[in-house]
Amino acid sequence: MAKRPAKKVTRKKAPARKKKAAPSTTPGADKVARGALGALIAVAVIAVIFALELPSMAARGLGGAMGDAGMNVRTIDVKGVERMESEPVYQIALGQRTRALPLVDVGAVRSDLLAFPYVKDARVSRRYPDTLVIDIVEREPVALWQGRDRLFLIDNEGVILERVPVAELPDLPLLIGEGANQQYEALERLLDRAPTLRPQLASARWVSGRRWDLNVATGEILALPEGEREAAEALDNFIRVDRRSPLLGIGVERYDLRLPGRAIARSEQFEDARERAEREAAEAAAAASEQEVTEDSE
Q1: Considering Cα of 48, then 50, then 55, then 60, what sign does the dihedral take?
Q2: In angstroms, how far is CA 38 from the centroid of its own chain?
Q3: Pairing of strands 143-147, 150-154
Q4: Which of 67, 103, 169, 281 could form a disulfide with 63 if both were Cys (CB 3.0 to 4.6 A apart)?
């Protein structure tokens, strides 16, 4: 049998795929991206150096190189400053031995800031490439303290914030006496037991480091006993009696509440009346005695 001639098979070439164009990048954006990546790598390297406690010279060298590359402190971002002057904060931040942001000792900056009376807490951090961020938590003035023959603003912990001129006194409670500033929170707990008395309080004197004399706006002095519990009970009893029959604003100068369950009223008016009564009684007794002697002689 004669073999059939084999058919020629022609294969068509597949159409060539079109290459996708690479996304175009501007030279500026590419430079910024490379710079940011380099900064992150450098920061990570410094962190590793400090974590492994490698020679500090290496860390300083790398940090200085980053400073030369543009990562110096150029901006101080201070937040939370309302009452204190902000200038000292900037002076501390800019007074470091180096301006290279990676080498700024944020712990030392925080410690220096905490030395200021108004600074209750502080957080210092770096924001790359060139910003030092300082968050301040300020102490709040809550009272005036008269001590050392001067007037000072204090916070609730008794920390002295600043001196206050007499002509610029704020409308705050006045505490008098050595150590009274350290007793502010105890006084607040005491006044919480007598909320009606709080707005009438003119000042509070800490006596001999043991107890309070409360000076009321109507002119009376309430002499409280020693001990926070004893003072609270004495004040409770006084307020209870005052609700039934007013004790304030009737001419009494001083109520001595140091004896449990008693309120001894003292005033010059009452003292004068008592002395007059005692004098008249003595004179009457003397006159009666003379009369008896006369009758006996007769």
Answers
A1: positive
A2: 41
A3: antiparallel
A4: 103
Task: Tell which residue, 162, 58, 161, 153, has the closest CA to residue 103.
Answer: 58
- Taking the model in full, what pTM does it have? 0.68
Residue type, 41: I
Q: Which two tokens stand for residue 174?
A: 């006045």
215: tokens are 């000076």
| Residues 21, 30: Cα–Cα separation, whole Å | 18
Largest CA distance in the chain: 196
- Check residue 252 and report its DSSP letter: -
Q: Is residue 62 classed as helix, strand or coil in its secondary structure?
A: helix
What torsion do the CA atoms of 288, 292, 294, 297 make, to the nearest 10 degrees? Answer: -170
Question: How would residue 274 be classed by pLDDT, with cut points 50, 70 and 90?
Answer: low
Phi, psi of 162 (to 5 degrees): -170, 160
- Is the confidence at residue 231, as pLDDT, over 80? yes
Q: What is the pLDDT of residues 119-164, one digit of tens each?
A: 999 999 999 999 999 999 999 999 999 987 899 999 999 999 999 9
Average pLDDT over residues 87-91: 94
User: How many C-beta atoms surround the C-beta of residue 158 within 10 A?
Assistant: 17
Residues 235-263: pLDDT tens digits?
A: 999 999 999 999 999 889 999 999 998 98
Q: Which CATH class is domain 38-138?
A: alpha beta
Spatial distance between the Cα atoms of 237 and 222, rounded to a whole number of angstroms: 12
Q: Where in the chain is the domain with CATH 3.40.50.11690?
A: 143-270
Residue with structure tokens 């449990």? Answer: 260
